[in-house]
Amino acid sequence: MSSHVSPQAEAQIPFSQISSILRDRVFPLLAETFLFALYAVLTGYFISKRWSNRRTNPLPAFILWTTLTMFVACVGYWVIDVYLLWAEAYRFLPRQTELQGTGIFFDGLDMPWSPPLYVQSILQLLLVLLGDVVSLWRGYVISGRPRWLRRLVISIIVVESLIYLWVAISWSTYYLPPSNSGFYDALVKSRRPVVYTSYAITGIAQTASTVTIAHKAWAHWRNSSGFVVKSSMHSSLAMLAIVIETGVAYLLLLIWFATINDLIGRHGSAAAVTSSYYFTPLVAMYPTLVVVLVSIRRSPLEPSGVSTSAASGRLRFAASSSTSEDSPLPRASSSYAQSYGDMRMGLFVVNHTEPIGGSKDSGNGSGEGSRFTPMSFASRHDMFAIGSV
Question: For domain 7-295, which CATH number applies: 1.20.1070, 2.60.120, 3.40.50, 1.10.150?
Answer without folding.
Answer: 1.20.1070
